[in-house]
Amino acid sequence: MSTTVAEPLRGRALAVRIWKYSIRRVVAPVCVFVPLAYFFPKIALLYALCGAYDVSRNSGLSLSTVRRYFTGNGVPTWLLSPFNSLLDLLSLPYVNKGVYQLADLPPAYQDEVRRLIAAAQESNLVGQLEEAAKQFPRTMVFFRWYGVDMPSFLNVPAFHQPWQYIQTIGVSVFNKKVSTSKHFGSLRASLRILYNLNDMTDDSAYIVVGDKTNYWRDNKLFIFDDTLLHQSFNETEQTRYCLFVDIVRPSPVPGVMRFVISGVRMLTSSFKFIYYQNWKLIEG
């Protein structure tokens, strides 16, 4: 998806856009949530409380974020908010920081992250992916998917060692002048780790999570809770190659987190293309 600015709509086109927006953002939610609140008030109250807690975790909270969470692409995250709230409780005393430094993770986690980054740096992933990815705006290749090794056209044996905490290993490639829309992840059983593999030369390649911005030229490693609203940008004239990793969320009961992650794998392994419908997903 490009961030090119479109011409402003006028006349009939503007009226149609407003009508579609009203149906999607106002009429449809009202038709769903009002009957739910009437017939199942306790469930509606639970979702109101969990949703309010969940969306309030976004730093720099704005009306736009609230609208997007409750009536936009954050609705799946809202639907899972009671479950995510339970995962937050099960993670204590490891409080969710939203955005992390490597030192915030337990020592064993830090060791795995460092070993993975070293393996990626030694594997010339940029060189191996350059030809396959250059014709697509966004490309994704996976070596490990929620705890299970995946076949890949790239040979990186080090990625297939028995990791204890790392669950997903992939590489996301943004071609020049390509960005994502603002979006939320769904589940908080894992944390997202991104590591930029190539050297960016200016500040036009970055990721925004709430009111925090990380520029890949300055900091190659970025760790965050992806159920927070986030958006990635590459407005440079370079292709951006980023290690894409999910790691088990620190918790006194890591087995529960792994169980949830295994459930996600079973539910999504046959239709990853839905999650990455705006990407070219290279498999096999």
How would you describe this protein?
The structure is a single chain. This protein has helices spanning 11-39, 41-56, 63-71, 75-79, 81-91, 107-122, 125-133, 254-268, 272-275; strands spanning 99-100, 138-145, 148-149, 166-174, 178-179, 190-196, 205-209, 212-215, 221-224, 230-234, 240-248, 280-282. The model is unreliable at 1-6 (pLDDT under 50). It is built from nine helices and twelve strands. It is globular. The chain folds into two domains: 11-91, no CATH class; 99-282, Jelly Rolls, CATH 2.60.120.330. Strands 1, 2, 3, 4, 6, 9, 11 and 12 form an eight-stranded mixed beta sheet that branches. A four-stranded antiparallel beta sheet has the order 5-10-7-8, with no helix packed on it. With 284 residues, the chain is α+β, with helices and mostly antiparallel strands.
Quickly count the helices. Answer: 9
Number of strands: 12
SS class: alpha+beta
Task: Categorize the overall geometry.
Answer: globular
Annotated CATH homologous superfamily of the largest domain: B-lactam Antibiotic, Isopenicillin N Synthase, Chain
The N- and C-terminal alpha carbons lie at a distance of: 25 Å
- The fold-level CATH name of the largest domain is Jelly Rolls
- Averaging pLDDT over every residue, what do you get? 87
The residue ranges in which pLDDT falls below 50 over 5 or more consecutive positions are 1-6
Going by CATH, the architecture of the largest domain would be Sandwich
What fraction of residues sit in β-strands?
A: 15-25%
CATH level 1 name of the largest domain: Mainly Beta
The main β sheet shows up as: 8 strands, mixed
Radius of gyration: 20 Å
Q: How many structural domains can be distinguished in the coordinates?
A: 2
What fraction, in percent, of the residue positions are helical?
Answer: 40-55%
| H and E order | HHHHHEHHEEEEEEEEEEHHE
